[in-house]
Amino acid sequence: MSALPWWRDRRRLGWLIQLAVGLVVLLAIALLLGNLERNLTRAGLRLSFTWLNDPAGFDIAETLLPYTAQSSYAMGLLAGFVNTLRVVVVGLVLATVLGVASGAASLSRNPLLAGVMRTYVEVVRNVPLLLQLVFWYFAVFLALPAAAEALRLPGLTLAKSGVFLGPVSLVNGELSGGWRLSLELAALLTGLVVYSGAFIAEVVRGGIISVPRGQWEAAASLGLKPTTTLREVVLPQALRVIVPGLNSQYISLAKNSSLAVAIGYPDLYAVAETTLNQTGRGIEVFLILLTVYLGLDLGISLLMNRLAHLVRIRER
Amino acid sequence: MRRLIQRLLPAVAAAALLPLAGCGGGDTGIGAGRLAAIKARGQLICGVDGKLPGFSYQDQGNYVGIDVDVCRALAAALFNDPNKVEFRELTSSERFTALASGEIDVLSRNTTYTLSRDASGGNGLDFGPTIYFDGQGVMVPRASGITSLKGLAGKTICVENGTTTELNLADRFREQAIPYTPVKYQTGDQTYGAYLQGRCAAVTSDRSQLAAKKTSFPDPEAHVLLPEVLSKEPLGPVTVNNDSALADALRWVVFATMQAEESGITSANLKEKLAFARANPNQADLRRFLGVEGEFGKQLGLPADFVPRVLTAVGNYGEMFERNVGQQSKLKLDRGLNRSYRQGGLIYSPPFR
User: Do the Cβ atoms of B294 and B352 come closer than 8 Å?
Assistant: First the structure.
C-alpha cells in the first residue's frame, strides 16, 4: 500500500468512482425490481413458468415443427422462433446478395444503372419499414390473381394461394407441386430484403469508396478488367470496412423481423402475443422474448466479429 | 484495495436489497383506490375498440356504441356528465396489458367473460355484468357457395390475434376433424381487409361483430353468416382484480340500466317517475332505486342520484340496445338472448335493495 492519501491516489479514486456508479445502477435496478414485485403481489400475480407445459390450444398457420393445438406453449413459442429463424436466415442471404449487387452497381460508370440504384436506395431508406411491409402484403401480394390465372414466371408461380418455386400444375383449380411459400412469408421476406438491401448497398458503396483510387489505377495499369479489379483487388480491401457495417444491418434485420405480426406471419412475436393473451403472463412472456431476441442478435454479432477478424488486413 | 472492496461489498449488497425488503411505498394508482383516483382526476379513462360499429366507433368525431355507453353511464354517475370520458383505442392483444398496467380505468371492448380471464391465476381481471350475450360465427362470401363449416375443409380462415375466437376456432375444427389454416392479424382492420382482398375463404368472430363489420363493407349483401354458432361469447366491461370499489360501482351502474328497463323507466319518462316517487312515500322500491331515499349511492361511493344521472345520459338497457345495435341502428340485430328475463331473455338485474 502506498503512503498516498486515498483522495489523491488516482488508481484508488478510479475504483471508488466505479464503485459509486455501480452502486447507483444496482440501486436503480433493485428499485425497479422491488416496484415490480410489489405491484405483482398487489395484482395477485407471481412469476412462474409452469404454464409453458400447458396445452396451447391455438393453431399456427405454418410451422416446420410437428406443432398442433394440443402441443404445449413452449412448443408453440419454439415453432414461432423457428419461423423467425427461417425469415432471418433466408433474409440475410438474399439481402446481402441484393445489397452487394446494388452497392457495386451504384458506382457503375453506366449513368442509367447507377441512377436506378441510387433512386432505389434513397426511396427505400426513407420510407418506414412497417409501411413498406403493409404495402407489399396488402397492395402487392394480396392483389395477386386467383390460382387459375396465376402469374407464371420461369421457375416462379405467383397466385393468391401462395408463391410457388419450381414447376407447378393446376389441379381442380388449386396449384400443387413445387415449394410453396405463404403470401405472408413472401411479403415479409420481400419487404425485409428490399429494405435491408438498400442499407447494405450503402455500406458496400462506402466500403468500395474507402479503397484509394490508386488501387484501381494500379490494377488498370496491369491490364485488369474493371470487374476483375473489383473482385480481386478492391472488394478484398473494402471488406474490412464493409463487415462491421454489415453486422449492424444483420442485427437490424433480425429485430425487424418481429414486424411480421402486422402482416399475419406467425413469427415468435406473433405467437408470444397470443400466448400472452391466453395466459396473462405478460412479464414471463416478455422475459422470454427479450432473452431470445438478445441471444439471436448476440449470435449474429459473434459470427460477424469472427468474420471481421478473418478479413482484416494482415500486416507483413 | 482488495480489502476495501471486500469490506464494502456486503454493505453495497444490503443497500441494494433494501428497497426489495421494505415493501411499503405509496399508491401507484394500480389496485386499490382506483375509484378515488378517477374522482380526483375528474375524468374516466376507458379502453374501447373504436372501430366496431354498434359497439364503439367514431361518428362525426364522437364515440358512440353500446360499449361506449357503459363508459358514459359510469362517467354520468360519477360526474353528472357523460362526456367526462377519455377513450383509448386498443387492439384485442393490447387490451389486458393496458388494463393491468393502469393505463385505463375500465375496459369496455366487447370482451368475452371467461374463467381464465377472471381467475387471479390467469389474467386476473374482474368482469362487470354481461351487456351482450353473443356467440362466435363465421362469415363467407356469398359467391363461394359455402353453407356450413364442413365446406371450409382445407381452406384459410382469417381471425384476430388474442381473442377467444382464435381458441374456439381451433377447438371446433379439431372436434369435427376439419383441416384448416388460420391467418392471424393484430387488428380488425387488417383481418377484414385481408378477408375482403380474398386472402381467406372465411372470417370468424363474434356474430354481432361480423354483422357490424358487414355494414361497413362496400357490398354488405355479398357476404353471409354460416348458420353454426361456435361458442358462447358473453361480452361485458372489465376492471382490474382486487379493486371492489370500482368494480361494484361499474357493476351497479350497468345493472341500473337493466333494472330501469324491468321497471319501465326510460330516459323519456324519467322526470315523471321521479316526480311520482317524490310525491308518493309508499313507493319504496322506486324511491330507493331513483335515490329519493336510502343510501345506495353512498354505499357504492357514488352520488345518491346516480341512477337518474345514468338514465338521463344513456337511457335504460333496452334503449341502449336499440339505439346502438338494434332496430334503430344500421346493424338491426335482433334482441334474442339479450331481451329482459321478463321477455324470456337473459338480461336480469339483481334487486336494488
Answer: no
Question: Distance from A34 to chain B by nearest Cα, in Å?
Answer: 5
What is the per-residue DSSP string for B51-94?
EETTTEEEETTEEESHHHHHHHHHHHHHHS-TT-EEEEE--TTT
Question: What's the half-sphere exposure (Cβ side, CA atoms, 13 Å) at B303?
Answer: 15
**Domains of chain B in sequence order:** 31-134+233-346 (3.40.190.10), 136-231 (3.40.190.10)
Q: How confident is the model at residue A111 (pLDDT cuts 50, 70, 90)?
A: very high
Strands B85-89 and B44-48, sheet pairing = parallel
Query: Does the beta carbon of A264 lie under 8 angstroms from any beta carbon of chain B?
Result: yes
B-proximal residues of A, 120-159, CB under 8 Å: 138, 142-143, 146
Residue A84, domain extent? 52-121+184-311
> Residue A220: is its pLDDT beyond 60?
yes
pLDDT of residue A167: 84
**A160 in B contact zone (CB under 8 Å):** yes
The answer to whether position A145 is within a domain reads no
pLDDT (0 to 100) of residue B116: 86
d(CA A267, CA A264): 9
**Nearest 10 degrees: Cα torsion B294, B298, B300, B303:** 100
ipTM for the predicted complex: 0.78
**Total count of domains within chain A:** 2
Q: Do B167 and A58 touch (CB under 8 A)?
A: yes
d(CA B346, CA B338): 6
Per-residue pLDDT tens over the stretch B109-163:
999 999 989 988 778 899 999 999 999 999 999 999 999 999 999 899 999 987 8
Residues A123, B155: Cα–Cα separation, whole Å: 38
Please judge whether A43 and B15 are an interchain contact, meaning their C-beta atoms are less than 8 angstroms apart.
no
DSSP string, A82-142: HHHHHHHHHHHHHHHHHHHHHHHHTT-S-HHHHHHHHHHHHHHHTS-HHHHHHIIIIIIIT
The answer to the question of residue A198 being in a domain is: yes
Interchain proximity A261–B161, CB inside 8 Å = yes
A129 Cα to chain B: minimum distance (Å): 17
For residues A243 and A237, give the distance between their C-alpha atoms in angstroms, rounded to a whole number. Answer: 11
**Residue among A26, A264, A280 whose CB faces B184 most closely:** A264
